[in-house]
Write a structure and sequence with these properties.
Blueprint (H helix, E strand, L loop, with lengths): L1 H9 L5 E5 L4 H4 L11 H14 L4 E6 L9 H10 L4 E5 L13 H8 L8 E4 L5 H11 L3 E3 L10 H11 L8 H19 L1 H8 L3 H5 L6 H9 L3 H20 L1
Parallel strand pairs: 1-2, 2-3, 3-4, 4-5
Helix pairs in contact: 1-3, 6-7, 8-9
Length: 250
């Protein structure tokens, strides 16, 4: 952990964030992610080691606890603050819940309102609209909200939230040209990182999220999922742009 933190620090980021929240089985079975919630002393010692190994701020994201009977987030927050973290993000579910049920923000508020706490507290869980982001921030008095699943394939949510907080108005959803620009950028990164074959294959599951909400999109989405070259994909993008531009004109 300390070596990793120093490698990250060398690249010049603003902070190092430790993810003690991932609930995926292959992660927690190794004691990583949310698995560390079963061993609080180890969680604290790991965090202290990272804090002591770098000069930049260290932050943490975690969950309410391992399961319903061990929601120890108030103690976790105090002890992590005591070893020097500069902010804490809390997902309002236990590891046992995974992503099921409704996130419990009341315990996040309990951490925020704890007189012992002085670091920023960010809430996470179920925030999928600008209205909800502002409502939860105000209701639970957190310093901010963290967006997770709602941003997958829809990075515009961050600007939408900022716009809503500033103006009280909902931004117009992105049109086809804007979506294609972002999809293409994602695809180019995927190709550079994974190569032409794997880059295209691993991009396929993302098209549905990026194109969600567009009328008559199913046929284009299926074409993208079956395309196996960049030229084919670019041709589909061009057809999509022409189709939706014509649709808007009519």
């Amino acid at each position: 952990m300390t070596l990793s933190a120093r490698i990250v620090e060398a690249t010049g980021p603003d902070l190092v964030d430790i993810n003690f929240g991932c609930p995926v089985k292959k992660v927690v079975c190794k004691g990583a992610g949310a698995g560390i919630l079963k061993d609080l002393p180890k969680m604290v010692s790991l965090t202290k080691a990272v804090v002591d190994s770098v000069k930049i701020p260290v932050t943490v994201k975690t969950r309410l606890g391992w399961d319903h009977d061990s929601k120890n987030i108030v103690e976790v927050a105090e002890r992590l603050q005591d070893v020097g973290i500069k902010a804490l993000s809390i997902h309002g579910r236990t590891r046992a819940q995974m992503y099921k049920g409704e996130a419990d923000w009341s315990l996040i508020a309990q951490v925020k309102n704890n007189p012992r706490m002085h670091i920023p507290i960010f809430g996470n869980g179920d925030i999928d609209t600008p209205q909800k982001a502002l409502e939860y921030k105000n209701r639970y008095e957190v310093d901010g909200v963290m967006i997770g699943r709602a941003a997958i394939g829809y990075p515009w949510i961050f600007d939408e939230i900022k716009h809503y907080v500033k103006t009280g108005e909902i931004r117009k959803v992105p049109g086809i040209e804007e979506r294609i620009i972002v999809i293409r950028k994602h695809l180019m990164h995927s190709l550079r990182w994974k190569g032409p074959k794997l880059g295209i294959l691993e991009m396929r599951p993302h098209y549905a999220n990026y194109l969600k909400g567009l009328s008559h999109i199913k046929e284009f989405r299926m074409q993208l999922v079956h395309a196996d070259s960049l030229d084919q994909i670019e041709s589909i993008f061009a057809s999509m742009a022409d189709y939706y531009t014509t649709l808007e004109i009519n």
